Amino acid sequence: MQAVIRIRGLVTRFGVQTVHAGLDLDVMRGEVLGVVGGSGSGKSVLLRTIIGLNKPVAGTVEVFGHDVLHLSDPELRALEKRWGVVFQEGALFSSLSVAENIKFALRENLYLTPELMTGLAASKIALVGLPADAGDKLPAQLSGGMRKRAALARALALDPELLFLDEPTGGLDAIAADALDRLIKDLQTSLGLTVFLVTHDLDTLFSICDRIAVLVDKRIRVGTPEQMLQDSHPWVRAYLQGPRGLAAQDVGRERG
Question: Taking the model in full, what pTM does it have?
Answer without folding.
Answer: 0.94
